[in-house]
Write a structure and sequence with these properties.
Blueprint: E1 4-9, E2 17-21, E3 29-33, E4 39-43, E5 57-59, E6 62-64, E7 71-73, E8 89-90, E9 92-95, E10 98-102, H1 103-108, H2 111-115
Antiparallel strand pairs: 1-10, 2-3, 3-4, 4-8, 5-6, 6-7, 9-10
The chain binds FE2/S2 (inorganic) cluster (FES).
Length: 116
């Protein structure tokens, strides 16, 4: 069962931008806000060469990595073809305008990848 942790308000994330969330074991999570107010969470690390996705440009439900311009799908973390790779994705729940992340995922998901 998920244990949801309140992180911030949707309004605290810039539209077409991102906000980073620190984790105890390293490897920040990037919260992205699309123009339609959908919120997505990915490890703030591009599957190509580790670029900070939170610094990228959000368009539609995608983000363009600031380093080499790969397009990453926010819902899945997958790179758009012809590029291949996947950023770790985190579950998000929005309730009454407040963004929540799953505590267990925050503690364990992609901790190794982030440290690499
Ligand atoms: S590190 Fe993201 S496209 Fe190269």
């Amino acid at each position: 069962m998920s244990e949801w942790t309140a992180i911030c308000r949707v309004d605290d994330i810039p539209v077409l931008g991102a906000r980073r969330v620190a984790r105890e074991k390293g490897g920040e999570v990037a919260l992205f806000r699309a123009a339609d107010d959908h919120v997505f969470a990915l490890l703030d690390r591009c599957p190509h060469k580790g670029g900070p996705l939170s610094q990228g440009i959000v368009f539609g439900h995608s983000v363009a990595c600031p380093l080499h311009n790969w397009t990453i799908e926010l819902a899945s973390g997958e790179a758009r073809a012809p590029d291949v790779g996947c950023a770790a994705r985190f579950a998000v729940k929005v309730e009454d305008g407040v963004v929540h992340l799953d505590a267990a995922e925050m503690a364990t998901r992609a901790v190794d990848t982030a440290a690499a």
